[in-house]
Design a protein that fits this description.
By secondary structure, this protein is mostly helical. The chain has one domain: ADP-ribosylglycohydrolase fold. The chain is 62% helix and 1% strand. Strands 1-2 form a two-stranded antiparallel sheet. Helix 9 packs antiparallel against helix 10. The structure holds manganese (II) ion (2 copies). The site of one manganese (II) ion has 6 residues, from helix 4 and helix 13.
Length: 324
């Protein structure tokens, strides 16, 4: 299980270490939070085209996939998003309206499932149905729950808990257990959430790398240095893919292109790395041609929700200039 104290202590060490400028610029945090939410939608829309394909199939069909073009096994229109973005939106809208209410999130997941979305993971479907029939907000610990479905919706959870590591940890695991109850999924949710915190706060690549190293020490299965190129929905493969491509790339575009061209669970790996890379590289680095492919209503809503989440977060509730 997650070593709470180790995690919080190391997070604090990195997150609250003295910076040259000893404050956080809330405008910058808001831009990064918006970029994280856009990154989810872009990674999802870009990757969905090649979900379940192998790298060589992608190569034969598209060369290198660089544009949001729709299609794929779901026959999407260009810019259309899937469960990864939709479940993130359920959480973001819920927190924006109600603060943290697990039941309200579960109700929104249920409404979403009733709308018959084309793309629903099996573990997510089972968990949401369990809530619909029994009202239960958490399933029992289950060996089959080590998929990436709880991690893909972490961006709004991280933004809403900025910059409180304990709050992040409890919300990450609570929302995860609505559908996934497995220590590897729990750890992945917390670690992705922490990387999002650090990136939203404008921390350096070295800080993020240090944090990732600590995460790998804690969960050796997430080790990504000897990455074998496997990008399945198993949370271990997803974490390796995300960490490997995030730390290996030098800009947002390269990071997302390299990630989704791994194929497999490309939209979900794309959504997760898109959030981290969006927050880390910032709004200016996101290619306009990708933003333009998204539904303009979605882009507006992501801006609204990200601002609202930051302002409701512990960071946003602190002094205008938060001192660390
Ligand atoms: Mn999806
Ligand atoms: Mn997927």
């Amino acid at each position: 299980m997650l070593g709470t104290h180790t995690y919080s202590a190391l997070y604090s060490e990195i997150c609250y270490a003295p910076m040259p400028q000893n404050f956080v610029d809330l405008d910058d945090v808001q831009d990064r939070a918006y970029a994280a939410m856009l990154g989810v939608a872009i990674g999802d829309a870009l990757g969905a085209t090649v979900e379940f394909m192998t790298p060589s199939e992608i190569q034969q069909t598209y060369g290198v996939l660089r544009d949001i073009r729709g299609g794929g096994w779901l026959q999407l229109s260009p810019g259309q998003v899937t469960d990864d973005t939709q479940m993130s939106l359920c959480i973001a809208r819920s927190v924006a309206e109600c603060g943290w209410s697990l039941r309200d999130i579960a109700d929104r997941f249920s409404d979403w499932l009733r709308s018959k979305p084309p793309d629903v993971g099996n573990t997510c479907r089972r968990g949401i149905r369990r809530y619909m029939y029994y009202g239960s907000l958490s399933g029992p610990l289950c060996d089959d729950d080590a998929g990436n479905g709880a991690v893909m919706r972490m961006a709004p959870v991280a933004i809403a808990s900025l910059a409180d590591s304990r709050l992040l940890e409890s919300w990450a695991v609570e929302q995860a257990h609505l559908t996934h109850h497995h220590p590897l999924s729990d750890s992945a949710c917390v670690h992705v959430g922490s990387l999002l915190h650090l990136a939203c706060l404008g921390r350096s690549r070295e800080s993020l790398r240090q944090y990732a190293q600590m995460a790998v020490n804690q969960v050796p299965a997430f080790g990504y240095l000897g990455y074998r190129g496997l990008c399945t929905a198993y949370v271990v493969d997803t974490m390796q893919t995300v960490l490997y491509h995030f730390f290996r790339s030098r800009n947002f575009e390269e990071c997302l292109v390299n990630t989704v061209n791994q194929g497999g669970d490309a939209d979900t790996a794309g959504a997760i790395v898109g959030a981290i890379a969006g927050a880390y590289y910032g709004l200016e680095e996101i290619p306009q041609r990708w933003i333009k492919k998204l539904n303009p209503g979605l882009v507006d809503e992501l801006l609204y929700l990200s601002r609202r989440l930051v302002s409701r977060s512990p960071l946003g509730q602190a002094d205008p200039i938060a001192c660390f």
